[in-house]
Amino acid sequence: MVASTGNMRERGMLYTGSYASDQDKSVPRIIEANGITVGFLGFTYGTNGLPVEQEHFASLIDDTLADQVAALDSQVDVAVVMLHMGDEYAPLPNDFQEETAATALDAGADLVLGGHPHVVEPFAGPVWYSHGNFLHGQWEEPTKVGGIGEFTFSGARFMPTYTVGPPISYDHHVIPLVEAAEYLDVHRWMADLHERLNVEVVDYL
């Protein structure tokens, strides 16, 4: 985590959910775009059995989540909360995902973005339960289809993507799903996403 956050800082990338130090964690993640302030928080259900030796290493989903979201919401126009949770490879969210997303929304989140299932899950109101894989292509087709969301406060669009490369390796890259015909049935996947996601699915953003 220290190396990852260090690399992102060197490249001027915003990160949240894991921090280099307690001081780093205390700095709100806020950007301004077109005169609108947008803040970000990230939380995880757990760490795959690894001990959290210091609190700043991982922001866990716990009873402090609502207070943290409310504090961010008081400082920004738009509060975005990212939640690492859910059942791996499940096409639909579980009760814990729905309850945690509702807690974040009740506390002031304007948009909730989920991850961890490794497959695309539905968009429901201001909650996208899982964007699927993006930097972690696996073995089965559903784990190679992910996407990039574009959100406004009058709607959302979703551009499906496909991870090209050997499973569980660093030798891969991401392409728009519509350009992945040599790897899978693009028309079937686009039709499935149109039907399941309850949002406009587009070839490109």
Automatic annotation (TrEMBL):
Gene3D superfamilies: 3.60.21.10
Listed SMART domains: PGA_cap
Alphabetized Pfam families for the sequence: PGA_cap (PF09587)
Top-rank taxon, per record: Bacteria
InterPro entries assigned to the protein according to its UniProt record, in alphabetical order: Capsule_synth_CapA, CW_Biosynth-Accessory, Metallo-depent_PP-like
Sequence ranges assigned to domain Capsule synthesis protein CapA in this UniProt record: 1-138
Family designation: Belongs to the CapA family.
Protein name: CapA family protein
Organism: Corynebacterium haemomassiliense
